[in-house]
Prior knowledge:
- The protein is an alpha/beta fold.
- It contains 16 helices and seven strands.
- Helix 5 (125-158) packs across helix 12, helix 13 (299-305) crosses helix 16 and helix 14 (329-342) packs across helix 16.
- The N and C termini lie far apart (63 Å).
- The mean pLDDT is 88.
Amino acid sequence: MKHYVGLDWAKDAHAVCVIDPAGQVVDRLEPTHDRNGLADLVRWLRRFGDPSEVAIAIERPSGLLVDTLVEAGFVVVPIHPNVVKASRSRYSAAHAKSDPGDAYLLADLLRTDGHRFEPLRPLSDEYRALRALVRGRDDLVAEKVALGNRLRAVLETYWPGPAKLFSCVHNKAALAFIEKYPTPESARRLGPKRMASFLRSQGYSGRRTAEELLERLRSAPQGLADEHEGEARKAVALALVSTLRAVKRSIAQLTKRIERAVEELPNGNVFMSFPRAGKVNAAQIAAELGDDPARFGSEKALAAHAGVAPVTYASGKKHGVGFRWAANRRLRLAITTLANNSRQSNSWAKHVYDSARSRGKDHVLALRILARAWIRVLWRCWVDGVEYDPDKHASARPHAA
Length: 401
């Protein structure tokens, strides 16, 4: 007898429900999210048949819990939370949510609509390692931006000069300037010669002269903090500078590992061959796609997964096209980054982007249109295992430089 398993995951303990082909509950379990709890879950699930024949519905496609189940040989079927939310009315008029109830709902969705969902295909060890590196670096980059915003906010309360001087307060020159001149008083005797010397020491490549930068510094508004508060703000600013330096060092270290890892992938050269993809962006795409095109089935499915295929709404006389929210956001960012970079050097990509803008599309939508176009090409190269060749890209030939 075939059984269906629904698993509603949580931080500390999970709700698991097993039902039979008639939809009747066979058993329930609430394993804890620790080593012993996950081991107990795997042993308990094996009571219901060979792992390769036990399908488990869950709302999330990744994480330790999912990895544990996949490595144990179970068939894991991710079902998007929006599907679960929309299905609650089938089981309760009150739309009430409970962990055991959602576990049963997931199992029953697998029983009645399992043919609509694709089982999760495990990544190879190389791609799992790459994904860990890429996602870790992306999270650190986001943290760097957040810390930079906090630093700017602190500076604007007592020493707005550096925030006025540098458009990006977390770059090398800005951090060095704040460390050297952490208060308005410390920069009071700063003249053109000292400024020029400082800029040379930091390898400043901006277009403004030392005199122009000094004028911007002196034209900045005065901070409103008094002496005691100013000293406190200075301590906070220097602490943020120190933290930003550490985060940037970690990003640089991870970047080097990612660049080596993507070069060693069996099809890493495919992703790196696209215009201005580079190694990091290629690694971001590869980490989210994995090594098996069968995970998506077609380029249309891939476009939908990446969130660059629009959603059409049609009901009666109403018709519209909307943004696809249910998507892999990391993949969407990686693909749109490729699109944005490629239009700087590839004439076909520039033509697709410019055509979208000429039709009244804003920058973000034009990038998604270009990303959708690139996915058709990327899919073909990925499936065939060949590098991108502009000479074989028929649509690009009329726009070749």
